[in-house]
Design a protein that fits this description.
The chain is 85% helix and 0% strand. It has 139 residues and is mainly alpha-helical. It has one domain. The longest helix has 33 residues. The chain is elongated, with a radius of gyration of 16 Å. The mean pLDDT is 96.
Length: 139
């Protein structure tokens, strides 16, 4: 594996995280707490792996700029902006959400999870979309 392989790894980790978040949400709606917990902790581990490989890639390879048609470029930049702003909040929100669950503060956990989940899911899904736009649309 080379540094050039890491963008695909990152997109894959984002996609896995989105799937785990979706499954975890489904499990808690079914009151399957253990399955929910496994999915959400797995999503957190997957996101930490993503952050690690993302940092390694950008430390060694730098940044790639979108070089596609202007109409798509504007959509890409709007998506990238919303993704980046919300991505900055995910680690803090996820750790607060996890902390409240571990402390047994389930009412407070649910309250912040209602904020954390859609933001984290959006960031994971848009991470995959950004990869596709940057590495498969932008040439």
């Amino acid at each position: 594996m080379t540094y050039a392989d890491l963008p695909l790894v990152n997109a894959t980790l984002n996609g896995i995280s989105a799937c785990l978040l979706t499954a975890g949400y489904g499990f808690i709606r079914q009151k399957r707490v253990t399955a929910h917990r496994v999915c959400m902790v797995s999503a957190l581990i997957t996101s930490v792996a993503f952050l690690t490989t993302y940092a390694i890639y950008h430390l060694h390879a730098g940044s790639k700029h979108f070089v596609g048609p202007d109409a798509i470029r504007m959509a890409y930049l709007a998506l990238l902006l919303s993704h980046t702003v919300l991505a900055a909040a995910v680690p803090v929100l996820a750790l607060i959400t996890l902390s409240r669950a571990l402390k047994g503060q389930l009412d407070r956990h649910r309250a912040i999870a209602r904020i954390t989940l859609p933001i984290w899911w959006y960031v994971s899904v848009t991470g995959v979309l950004i990869y596709v736009m940057l590495y498969h649309v932008s040439q």
